[in-house]
Amino acid sequence: MDDYDTIYGSDRGPQITIKEADSRHAQIVLSNCDLAFANALRRIMLAEIPTIAIDIVEIQTNTSVIPDEFLCHRLGMVPLDSTNIDDKLIYTRDCFCDQYCERCSVTLSLHARCTGEDNVTVYARDLVIAEGAQLGSPVINDPEGQGTVICKLRKGQELRLKCIAKKGIAKEHAKWAPTAAVGFEYDPWNKLRHIDYWYEEDAKEEWPKSKYADWEEPPIEGEPFNYDAVPSRFYLDIESAGSLPPDEILQQGIKYLQEKLAAVIETFSNKNETGDGFGDGVRSPGQDYSMGGMGGGGAGYETPYQGGRTPFGGGGFGGATEYGGRLMGGHKCVAAVAMG
Amino acid sequence: MNAPDRFELFLLGDGETKVSMEQDTRQPNAAIFTFNKEDHTLGNLLRATLLHNEHVVFSAYKVPHPLFPKFELRVQTDEETTPKEALLAACQSLIGDLQMLSQKLTREWELNKIARDTS
Ligand SMILES: [Zn+2]
């Protein structure tokens, strides 16, 4: 328990406070860190967290008014449940199969036909997920339980298609973004003067107060400007697109930022040894090393770096506590932290 | 039609390494690191973290061209350390910081959830 207190009770390292949260969004305050750190976290949450989205559509029948490619695009944008994706699915490019298989994809099928006089609306709930799939069911959050609208059909029109959903990141296509938006703000009183407010007569009168203003002390009248001041509190508002809950988005963001950094360390530590497969370029970022050599390199987990193992590569985030404890408990790493 | 595949933004090509280091011959203890398939997310983070190190004299990065997914990080240190060591230390300390953040987040989220469930 001592260890626990020294880690959690300390003021060292970045601090996090949750202001407001539910299953779809989270408002958090990051403090005791610099702008670059907070911004890196924001950027990685926007672009580099894997989710699952429809990537291939095999159309058998489409007699609706919507052209095939239009329909495919709409299907791609439907958020699909991606919780714990790293434990359940691998990237197709890291898989042994030819085009897709159940290890690297989830199949959803859609069959809808309008027979009556009234038009039929096809919703995300009408996508039927393949039996035994561990993830990838359409996200439905509306009170009616319908999900997003895919298409509308008139009498006699029909849709019959098969969708292949794959794992990917938003850097490749925005449909894989786990966030709808990430709000980012700091210095609500503009004490640092990073913003020049445009005004007619008086900026104070004309501009609304930041919603975070009450969280910081207002400036004192006539206070001299502090040229050395840097921002240290950051207000993030994470809005989930539905595929992942906000806490998992944050945790995954942290994890993939760590992976990036670990990859840098790994490059240098492997240069001194015989080339044992590192630099095997096709390995996807965040490829789960523990999945029995399905990934490319297979080097990561045990790679020695300054006597310790690379603090990365072990399983999904669920298994983090084990190496997390070692990482924080070990003197080597605590010393490294203190340097930062 | 001749657009490069989107995954070329983040997947290393054949034989490509994540980072390469070139010693700056004009100054002692200076090096330019070229990061492949990385962007401002890592570039600015490392730049800022390196500047916290008292032995780092200079640290800056640039993206030479927006169409190429790489950046260059120039680091100069004093006699006490080398650019490579400073970079590795920065990565190590960030991994540690992120680990602490992750643990704090887990705890905060649990507390928040309990508060939400009871109210
Ligand atoms: Zn496969």
Gyration radius of chain A (Cα, Å) is: 24 Å
Reading the helices and strands of chain B in chain order gives EEHEEH
Please give the most extensive interface between any two protein chains, plus how many residues each contributes. A-B, 62 and 55 residues
CATH superfamily of the largest domain in chain A: DNA-directed RNA polymerase, insert domain
Largest sheet of chain B: 4 strands, antiparallel
Query: What are the distinct ligands in this entry?
Result: zinc ion
Oligomer: heterodimer
Second CATH tier, the architecture of chain B: 2-Layer Sandwich
What is the CATH topology descriptor of chain B? Gyrase A, domain 2
How many domains comprise the coordinates of chain B? 1
The total of beta strands of chain A comes to: 12
Please identify the top-level CATH class of chain B.
Alpha Beta
Q: What is the mean pLDDT of chain A? A: 82
Measured by DSSP, the beta-strand proportion of chain B falls in 15-25%
Question: What is the CATH fold-level name of the largest domain in chain A?
Answer: RNA Polymerase Alpha Subunit, Chain A, domain 2
Radius of gyration of chain B: 19 Å
Note poorly predicted spans of chain A: 273-283, 288-340
Question: Can you walk me through this structure?
Answer:
The complex is a heterodimer of chains A (340) and B (119). The relative contact order of chain A is 0.17. Chain A is built from 8 helices and 12 strands. Helix content of chain A is 24%, strand content 23%. Chain A folds into 3 domains: 1-49 and 231-282, Gyrase A, domain 2; 52-176, RNA Polymerase Alpha Subunit, Chain A, domain 2; 290-332, no CATH class. In chain A, α2 (35-47) crosses α6 (246-271). Chain A has a 4-stranded antiparallel β-sheet, covered by helices on one side. A 4-stranded antiparallel β-sheet of chain A has the order 3-8-4-6. Chain A has 340 residues and is α+β, with helices and mostly antiparallel strands. The longest helix of chain A has 26 residues, at 246-271. Chain B is α+β, with helices and mostly antiparallel strands and 119 residues long. Chain B has one domain: Gyrase A, domain 2, CATH 3.30.1360.10. Chain B has helices at 40-52, 83-118; strands spanning 19-23, 30-36, 56-62, 70-77. In chain B, β1 (19-23) and β2 form a beta hairpin. The chains are: A alpha+beta (340), B alpha+beta (119). Residues 92, 95, 97, 100-101, 103-104 of chain A line the site of zinc ion.
